[in-house]
Amino acid sequence: MIGPLSATMVGSLVLAAAAVLPRYNVEPSCRSAAQRAGDASYVAICLRKEQEARQQIERQWREFTAADKTQCVPRSRVFERGTYTELLTCLELARALRDIRANRDSTTTGQIRKPNAK
Fold first, then answer.
1. d(CA 45, CA 47)
2. Is the sign of the CA dihedral 46, 58, 74, 95 positive or negative?
3. What's the pLDDT tens digit per position in 75-98?
4. Which residue in 18, 37, 51, 95 could disulfide with 69, CB within 3.0 to 4.6 Å?
5. Directed axis angle between helix 42-60 and helix 27-37, to 10°?
6. CA 73-23-95 angle, 5° bins
7. Are 82 and 76 in contact (CB under 8 A)?
8. pTM score
9. Domain ranges of the chain
10. What would the 3-class secondary structure string for 79-118 be?
């Protein structure tokens, strides 16, 4: 069992790790996906999509909250392999959910808030 101090330290480590965009070796995931699809040419497509997802995350990284990063970075590791597409999807969903909740809360107070601009 983790004691209170240890839990705090673990939480701090997770938060610190989430502050930096992780580096993933996506090739094994892409090869596995191509094998499941039965199409070896899919590896190149997958690698391109992963690179595009990473670039999009890099452009938006500061816009995502620390809580979203802390939640999504561990979830982006599919079968122990991280993928940028999974990370981007998680971050975008977390942001959208926060916007929906903010809009819902503002309608109950009579104030309308605009969602985050892209």
1. 6
2. negative
3. 887 667 889 999 999 999 999 998
4. 18
5. 140
6. 35
7. yes
8. 0.71
9. 24-109
10. CCEECHHHHHHHHHHHHHHHHHHHHHHHHHHCCCCCCCCC
